[in-house]
Amino acid sequence: MAEKLLLENFLSCHVCSETFRDPVSLSCSHNFCSSCLQKFWEQTKNKNCPICKRKSSRDETSINVSLKELADSFAKRQSESSPETEKEKEEEKEEVVCDKHPDVPYWYCEDEDRAVCPVCEFSLHQSHKVVPVEEAVSDLKEQLKSDLKSLQDKRNKYKQVEETYNEVREHMKKQLLSTERQIRAEFNKLQQFLKEEEESRLAALREEEEQKGRTISREMKMIEEQISSLSDSISAVEEELQKHSVPFLSSYKDTQSRARAQSSVSDPQLVSGALIDVAKHLGNLSFRVWEKMKEKVHFSPVILDPNTANRWLYLSDDLTSVRHRDTKHELPDNPERNTYSATVFGSEGFRSGKHSWEVEVGDHPWWTVGLVKESVDKNEPSVSPTCGFWCLTHYSGEYIDGDDQSLQVKKSLQRIRVQLDYDRGEVSFYDPEDMTHIYTHRDTFTEKLFPYFNIAEAGDAKTS
């Protein structure tokens, strides 16, 4: 007994206190279940030994094969000697229904759901439904096989969903990286615009300062020249005043004329607007930059939802155009995705109000645009109002309405304008070039409607 306890202690994990499962050994010679050690390290956010707290010198742990074989052997012996195993052995011994008649073919009573001895218990089961045990076993096994098949089918469905979730998780990682890249690219564009705008406005500020500086320098040069001239005249008058009577009388006239001429010159005036026009540079600065920024950005009333796009469709980075190609994406079968046809929905739906957008279809030979209700069956082949579609279709040069009726259109349409008046229950289609009416369908809408785009063959379409 002591030897068994010692062996049990040696083969027990110090984390879960159970016999080792896939044991691993650390550099400090302590052993643990591989899964227990990984969970412990995840919780503590370090790679220290759970017992001695020494940091493991091994980045990756490997299974201790010898210890695993010893632990598996010990666990097997424990299982064979467990009460449950003994009970199973006793149940096997109890398979004999009747000790008195062990060789008699037994019956199976369906009412009591058990095997019975036809000799000893005949009178007890006269009113019950009994059949030979072999027949009952055969029937019950067939039932159990059916139940097994049902369980296997159910498990396969769960496995399929599990596989799809794994695909979703991997696709989410790709979406994260792609979306991050595009967000950074968009902000880089805005930052570049703001940087250029900042430099432009700073350059305009410096240009004004230089221009007005030149004006002030020019004015100051003229003033300096006037000051020099006036100083010369003042010196001449002062010299004249120092002369004696006869020399003074002979020269004062010229000095006086010069002095009076310069005195009659108008007084100097400061030039108006010499200072920098700060209000022009700072007034509503953010608003004026924003107004200019609007010229650089584009707004689309309809954004395509990549999570609904069929595998054959490729969306642009800004999610406003879609192209049908001959190779398909590896995408998960998430519930929103259109797997039946080359279709993509708009990202936002409408429950009320008026909405409109244009679709550039170009010379594409086969397309359908319009609206679809939220609960539409994505495997529905019929694009009709009765199935939840309100669309215009072009196929081989022919334009077709939702009731599969051909429409009279005078020219080939490069763009289609879709208009929705939800409250009035109207979906209309126009040629946006001259707003020629093509087709209107009237209905009663009771749920959210989403923009609908189907590009059935290689080509592309763009919303605006």
UniProtKB/TrEMBL annotation:
Residues 282-464 form the B30.2/SPRY domain. One of its GO terms (molecular function) is zinc ion binding. Residues 13-53 form the RING-type domain. Keywords: Coiled coil, Metal-binding, Zinc, Zinc-finger. Residues 134-171, 195-240 form a coiled coil. Residues 74-95 are annotated as: Disordered. The keyword Zinc applies. CDD domains: SPRY_PRY_TRIM35. Residues 93-133 form the B box-type domain. The keyword Hydrolase does not apply. SMART domains: BBOX, PRY, RING, SPRY. This is Nuclear factor 7, brain-like.
